[in-house]
Amino acid sequence: MALVVTLAPLAGWAPVAGAAIILNDVVVRVYDNTGLPSLVRRTSLTRAAEIFARAEVEIGWVHCPARCGRAPSPDQLILRMTRSPATAMGLGSSMIDPVLQAGRLATVYVDQVDAMARRSNTDREAILSRAIAHEIGHLLLGTAEHTRSGLMRGIWTAEELRRNHVEDWQFSPFQRTVLRARLAAGNPARWNAGVPKVSPGRTGS
Question: Torsion angle of alpha carbons 166, 95, 102, 5, nearest 10°?
């Protein structure tokens, strides 16, 4: 996707002492290649998780490489936060197999997010969290298509970012139904036993 202006047991995971062991709907491995300050990364992932929580989807973030001792299992999603290549056209991209209607890798271009935040004079973490949720949304919905409104639209304007209407940054009722149906069917996975639940208020770091 191009924004203009735009799950199996986890190997190597050591549960935090006293943490409740509850099922997550989705576990995402996070690779930050930009050296984001930990507070910025944590805040952005927390806000992204809140977007999914409103769609009744629980996201668990696993920060790599610190907590990733082995290669990801087929049921884990991967989020890369990196700098954009010269050919980048937006805030991020997702790799979707149109035949299988599935994907595992989402990428967010942090430098493009920062440029958008400066142009629109809006919160860096807000834009980053929405870009993360948008790209992960493509993976979970199994499509690279965009909508005309809501979080999954393909064009974000500076005016929309400044206006900050809640409905502009959420999944539609239909998308929420699709997300829950795909997760219930095991797409990408229903079970992540042994992974501490990450509530919208905190991340796994």
Answer: 20
Say if residues 80 and 106 touch (Cβ distance below 8 Å): yes
Full strand arrangement of the beta sheet holding 77-82: 59-64, 26-32, 77-82, 102-109, 92-97
- What global pTM score does this model have? 0.79
List domains and CATH numbers for the chain: 26-184 (3.40.390.10)
Q: How far is CA 116 from CA 128, 136, 150, 175, in A?
A: 10, 20, 18, 26
Instruction: Write out pLDDT tens, residues 103-156.
Output: 889 999 999 999 999 999 999 999 999 999 999 999 999 888 999 999 999 999
